[in-house]
Amino acid sequence: MLQCRPDGDFMKILHSSDWHLGRLLYGRRRLAEQEAFLEWLLALMRDEAIEALLLAGDIFDTTTPGNQALEAYYSFLKRAIDGGCRHIVVTAGNHDSPSTLAAPRQVLRTLGVHVVVDADDPAAAVLCLRDSAGRPELVVCAVPYLRDRDLRAAEAGETFTDKEQRLLEGLRARYAAIHGLAKLTIDAQPGLAAISMGHLFAAGGATVADDGVRELYIGGLAQVGADLFPDWLAYTALGHLHIAQTVGGRPEVRYAGSPLAMGFNEAGQSKQVVIIEVDTLATVAGDHSDATATTAASARRPVRIQPVNIPVFQKLRRLSGSLAELEAALTSLKADATQSDAAVWLELECVERASPSAIKERLYAALEGSPHQILIIKHAAAGESGGGLAVGPSLAAMSETEVFERLLEAEGVPEANRAELRLCYGQLLRRLYETESAEAAAKEAAAKEAGA
After folding, report:
1. What is the DSSP string of 129-194?
2. Phi and psi of 281, rounded to 5°?
3. How many CA atoms lie within 13 A of 231 on its CB side?
C-alpha cells in the first residue's frame, strides 16, 4: 500500500463556485469582467502555491454557453495547471449542461482536471487525488447538482408533503452513500483527509432578490441542514448560493459565493474565494492561531480556512428618487469622474409620474460625456394621482419565479391555493431547463457526427 504524504504536511486548496460565464446583465455582456476575475484568480493561485482547485458548480450561466465563455473556461484550466495547480475538480451545477461539461473530461483528466456531472454511481463521485509519486493525498466527494428525477420516482396521487419527503430522503441517501465510500477510503489510509462538495440549497441560506439563484427543486423543496455533512470531513465546498456564508454555524461548511455581483442587489457585497489548508496527518484537531477559522470538533483534523476578498472589476450602482433627484445625482457622478475612472453601470428608478421618454431623455442628458453607463431605468409611480405609468421592473429584469408570483398577486389567487400552483409551475420550469440541456447535447452530438 502506498503511504500518504509526509506527516504534518498541509495541502493548499482553493474553493470557488458560481462563475456563471456568459451571463448578461440587462442585456450587457460581462465577459471582460469575468476574464479579469480569472486573471486575478490565476495570479492568486500562483502566489499562494495552490495545489488543488474545487469548482462547485454553475461554471456557465446557461446550458448552451457561447464560444467565448467556453474558450475562457478551457484557457483558464490549462493556465491553472501550467501555473502549478496539480488538481482541479469541477462539478456540474443546475445552470450547467452535463453533456457540455463532460464532453472533454477524458482529455482533461490527463491534465489533472476531474469533471463530475452525475452521481448515479456513488463510487464515480469519490475521487482519490494523488501526488507526483502516486501517493494518496486527498479524497474528494465530488457531488454535482442532483436532479429531481435522479432522487425520486414520481407516484400518482402523491401530495406536496410526500414529494418533499421523498426528495429529502433521496438527497440524504445519495450523499450518505458517497460519504460512506469516502470514509472507507480514509479509514484504510491513515492520515488521509476528505473534503466534500455539493451544489444545493442549505436551510437558512441567505439570498437576495435578482441574484439569479434558481429554485433547485419544485416549490423550493429539499433544503438540507449542515448535518448532511459528517464531522470527519475536513471541509465542505458548496455552490449555488451567491452570498459567501457558512452553514449551520460550522466554519468548515461554507459557500464561496459568486465571484461577481449577479445583480444590482449584490453590488455592496464582498465577494470571496476560500483558501483551505488541510493537515494530511492529524486525526485530532490542534490549537491553531489562524487569522480566520480552525475547525473545533475534537475528532476533526486541523484545517485553516482563509476567505480572500475579490476585487471589484465592474462597479454597479443603484439610484432611486424623483426625476430632479436622479438628475442631480448623475450630474454629481459625472462631475466627480476623471478620464482614468472605470465606467459605473447604473440602475435607475424614477419614483414620479412622467413620460417614460422624457425621463429617459433627461437622465441620459445628465450623464452625457461621462464614462458611466445607464443599463436600465425603472419606473415606480409615487402616489395614486397623476397620469398612468408602468409600475415596477420590466419583464426582462425579472426572474421566471418573480413573474409567476406577480401573476398570482394580480389574479388574487388565495394563499391556500398557491403552494400547489407553485409546485406545478416549478415542475414545468424544471422540465424546460432539462429539455434545453438535452437539446444542447443533441446539437453537440449532431455537429460532431457531421464533422466526423
Report:
1. EE-TTS-EEEEEEE--PPPHHHH----TT--HHHHHHHHHHHHHHHHHHHHHHHHHHHHHSTT--E
2. -110, -60
3. 10
pLDDT surpasses 90 at 408: no
pLDDT of residue 378: 87
Cβ-contact 124, 135 below 8 angstroms = no
Exposure string for 179-192, b = 16+ CB within 10 A, e = fewer: beebbebbeebebb
CA dihedral sign, ordered 170, 174, 179, 181: positive
Report the alpha-carbon distance of residue 279 to residue 273 in Å, rounded: 20
Are 397 and 349 contacting, i.e. CB atoms less than 8 angstroms apart? no
Burial of 195 (0-12, 13-18, 19+ CB in 10 A): buried
Higher pLDDT, 215 or 102: 102
If one counts every other C-beta atom within 10 angstroms of the C-beta of residue 382, the result is 13
Which of 150-164, 183-197, 404-418 shows the lowest mean pLDDT across its residues? 150-164
Q: Tell me which of 362 and 405 has the higher pLDDT.
A: 362
- 217-221, 242-246, 441-445: which has the highest mean pLDDT? 242-246
DSSP at 210: T
Per-domain boundaries in the chain:
10-309, 315-398
The cell numbers describing 120, all together, are 448515479
Residue 80 to residue 83: CA distance in whole angstroms: 5
**315-398: CATH topology:** Double Stranded RNA Binding Domain (3.30.160)
266-303 pLDDT per residue, tens: 888 899 999 999 986 554 333 333 344 544 433 456 78
Averaged confidence pLDDT in the chain? 81
- Amino acid identity of 216? L
Asked if pLDDT for residue 37 goes beyond 70, the answer is yes
Amino acid identity, residue 318?
Answer: R
Exposure of 174 in the CB half-sphere (CA atoms within 13 A): 27
**Does 220 score more than 50 pLDDT?**
no
- The one-letter amino acid code at 390 reads A
CA distance 116 to 240: 16
For residue 274, give the 3-state DSSP assignment: strand
Q: Are 398 and 191 in contact (CB under 8 A)?
A: no
CA distance 278 to 272: 19
Residue partners of 184: CB distance under 8 A and separation at least 6: none
Q: How confident is the model at residue 390 (pLDDT cuts 50, 70, 90)?
A: very low
Fold of 10-309: Purple Acid Phosphatase; chain A, domain 2 (3.60.21)
Predicted model pTM: 0.79
Question: Beta strands 52-56 and 87-91: pairing type?
Answer: parallel
